[in-house]
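note to self: dont lose this again. the chain is below, predicted strucutre after it. 197 aa total, dont forget to put it in the shared folder this time
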Amino acid sequence: MSETKSRRRGAALEQAILEAAWAELNAVGYAALTIEAVAARAGTSKPVIYRRWSSKAELVLTAWGSRAPMPTRRIDTGALRSDLISMFERIARRAEGTMSEAIAGVMGEAFRQPEVAALLRDRLRTAPLTGWVSAIVERAVERGELPRVEVTPRVGRLPLDLIRYETTVGEVPIPDETIAELVDEIYLPLLRGLADR
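---
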């Protein structure tokens, strides 16, 4: 281990570990990835990694999330449909930037390992997506485009679910026409149906 690497602390060390985990994931896949190999690649030790992440699954999911963090810029085009299209486009570009054979392996592990499935569920529950949808809907209500609608967590997560499905079975990158169809044929009718209730 070089002296430069051994002196890294805080954010710089964390970033090096996440980059090493991502590189290792893409090199060997989830099943063969070891904390020892990540530590060697990052020029650190296993205890340093385990102080930050309690498991391989947690480290890999954090590394995945760090590759394409959720954008924080507010979506406000002035109309509900164009706000939704903008949001779906952001989600699609993020998903396209991180989907790979290695990530497919992580998703596959979720079906076999309860620890991975639990972490994925927790990440989805705490993602800012429901807040995005709620803000978009609230502005649409204020403009008179929709009656008041309750955005439940499941409704808030649906855009991500739809995009994830498209990246799995559809064309990547997702065409603009497909994003418009997801909004026009599924999500807008859903919101209007919930408003009618």
